[in-house]
Amino acid sequence: MIVKEVTRILEELAPLAHAEDFDNVGLLVGDQNQEVSGILITLDTLENVVEEAIAQKCNLIVSFHPIIFNGLKKITGATYVERTVIKAIQHHIAIYSMHTALDNAMEGVNAKICEVLDIMDPKILIPQKSTIKKLTTYVPLDAAESLKNALFEAGAGTIGNYSHCSFTSKGIGSYKADQHANPTKGKIGEIHYEEEMQVNITFSAAIEKKVMNALFKNHPYEEVAYEILTLENTNQNIGMGMIGSLQNPMKEVDFLKIVKERMHASCIRHSELRGKPIEKVAVLGGSGAFAIKAAKAAGADLFITADVKYHQFYEAEGSMVIADIGHFETEQFTKNLLVDYLTKKIPNFAIRLSESITNPIKYL
């Protein structure tokens, strides 16, 4: 198995197209065609993680956070980033990062937090925009069904829990082929009228290339007439954060104690307690203060995240409790998620969970 094949499997879970624009995801170091001897899963890629990969005979590191974020102008070993990249290159170790692509995944970072905390029936807190597209094309009646099936096979036509979704309508199309054309139907130099089917089908922006390949490969016309629109509809399965409910309402302090224990948090910084039971809980791994308003609007009693600034705690305004449990703490189980996922997808392959401690924050 080569690097490209492993990353293709990872992108089934978290397509890179769903990563935030500011992010740097994908293969950051290495050759995509290199044969993989073993995979090391980590939250961060640091020098000690590369050393661990060498010791474990793993030449592919799958990292949640990207070691290269703002770009490198020099690679001289002057910084921890440069030293890590140099060591990886010297030992032919590829580094692949998922970061916000996994943050936005339905079964990603936030789903894992919900699993650990027994938060039931989680839904996306902030759906990602511009992730749904619509294809409209025109095809002869006798080829419409086979074309639709090819598009379905490519992943188009899925809406929530439903697949093979499309809308069709009949009409008359016209065209005149010039002397350079090779028309499937009609004659050169004559206007041809064909009874056609208009096919409308939606698809995820992440699979646009795959859908277009299926369209061109299976459409009978030499020149394919089509339109692609980006829809304003929200995608219920892609986005930041999640919100769900506890099986039974709990006292604030009691649930915060559970959070501290299960998330291995050294401390919890939180806004003023309301003296009301906790039932609806919102979570967002990493720096999630930007989602405070969304959590309030969704009716959360408690919002669990990290990196909340002093004045941002005021934004709770008594309507919910904001709990900052630490950046590393909210994302630490991501490694386990990826190990479990890859182990199921690639059984009998060397997949290792990194034991390196990469949390840069220490507590006295």
From TrEMBL:
Keyword Metal-binding present in the record's keywords: the answer is yes
Q: Which Gene3D superfamilies match?
A: 3.30.70.120, NIF3 (NGG1p interacting factor 3)-like (3.40.1390.30)
Task: Report the leader peptide range.
Answer: none
UniProt xrefs under InterPro entries: DUF34/NIF3, DUF34/NIF3_bac, DUF34/NIF3_sf, N-reg_PII/ATP_PRibTrfase_C
Q: Keywords in UniProt for this one? A: Metal-binding
Q: List the Pfam families.
A: DUF34_NIF3
Q: Which family does it belong to?
A: Belongs to the GTP cyclohydrolase I type 2/NIF3 family.
Q: State the PANTHER family in the record.
A: GTP CYCLOHYDROLASE 1 TYPE 2 HOMOLOG, NGG1 INTERACTING FACTOR 3
Give the protein name, as stated in the record: GTP cyclohydrolase 1 type 2 homolog
Organism (species): Maribacter arenosus
